[in-house]
Design a protein that fits this description.
Layout: H1 2-23, H2 26-89, H3 92-175, H4 185-207, H5 210-236, H6 243-259, H7 265-282
Helix pairs in contact: 2-3
Length: about 280
């Protein structure tokens, strides 16, 4: 039962992580990764600083012990010299005291020499650790710089991906045949073409209707009356009929010839009318 619960918990955890990664914003995740890298670099620098500080402290202690060793060595030499002078002077007691002091300085010098050797070993190890820490900080700084430059590249690619997705969405909406919230371009085109076709059909019906034919006949009658009135005015003014009246009358004669039933009678009527019209204005 416990093993089943563990499996179920791991499954739910993996499912939650997958859903979270699917819905998470890559830009925010990228910023989180960069901040984590910067935090790691900061902690590494602090550790490296502690290692370097230890090396510096060891170096200071070594220098201080070396100074003490030089002083103790000098004091031991001085005590030996003073003991030798007292012994020459016959002051055995003072010579013994100075010899005892010289032995104490010698013991102190031995201890200092051991401490110097230990500090030299520690200083060597601390120096190596400090060098490694400096190299690690330098390598991590280079890697962090690469991550920062890669972040700019990834952000640019992310912006391009978003723009491409928007373009794909726009092209898909244009290519769709049925719109959801708003009509598509194809639907609007079909609507306009249907309206245009209906308007053209109504225009054709209007052109072929009886009313339009009647208007055409009335207009032709007005034109004939206008030509007749112009002929009367020319006759009253004594103006000879020029070629213009014949050209104006030719359409009417052609229409009358086309409306007549027999084609042989139309030329004869046309021949008599010109002979009668020139005689009237001249008489």
């Amino acid at each position: 039962m416990l093993q089943l619960l563990r499996k179920w918990w791991k499954y739910l955890t993996a499912k939650g992580e997958a859903r979270f990664n699917e819905r998470a914003d890559p830009k925010v995740q990228l910023e989180q990764a960069i901040r984590e890298s910067q935090e790691q670099h900061r902690r590494l620098k602090e550790q490296a600083a502690n290692v370097i500080a230890n090396q510096k402290q060891t170096e200071l202690r070594l220098n201080r012990v070396l100074e003490d060793l030089e002083k103790v060595n000098a004091n031991a030499r001085q005590a030996l010299l003073m003991a030798a002078d007292a012994e020459k002077a016959g002051d055995t007691k003072r010579a013994a005291e100075l010899s005892t002091a010289a032995e104490s300085f010698a013991d102190r010098m031995i201890n200092l020499e051991r401490e110097v050797e230990d500090l030299k070993t520690l200083h060597f190890q601390a120096t190596q650790a400090a060098d490694q820490a400096k190299a690690a900080v330098q390598q991590n700084a280079t890697a962090l710089q690469q991550r920062l430059s890669e972040r700019q590249k990834l952000l640019s690619q992310l912006d391009q991906a978003k723009m491409q997705e928007q373009m794909n969405t726009a092209m898909a909406s244009l290519s769709e045949t049925v719109g959801q919230d708003v009509p598509t371009l194809e639907e609007v085109r079909q609507k306009i073409e249907l309206r245009y076709s209906r308007a053209r059909g109504m225009a054709e019906l209007t052109e072929t209707s009886v009313e339009s034919r009647m208007l055409e006949v009335e207009q032709a009658s007005r034109n004939v009356e206008a030509q007749t009135r112009l002929a009367e005015l020319r006759s009253q003014l004594g103006l000879p009929p020029a070629s213009e009246p014949s050209s104006l009358e030719s359409p009417s004669s052609s229409s009358s010839s086309s409306s007549s039933s027999s084609p042989s009678s139309a030329p004869g009527a046309g021949a008599e009318q010109p002979s009668a019209e020139p005689g009237s204005p001249t008489g």
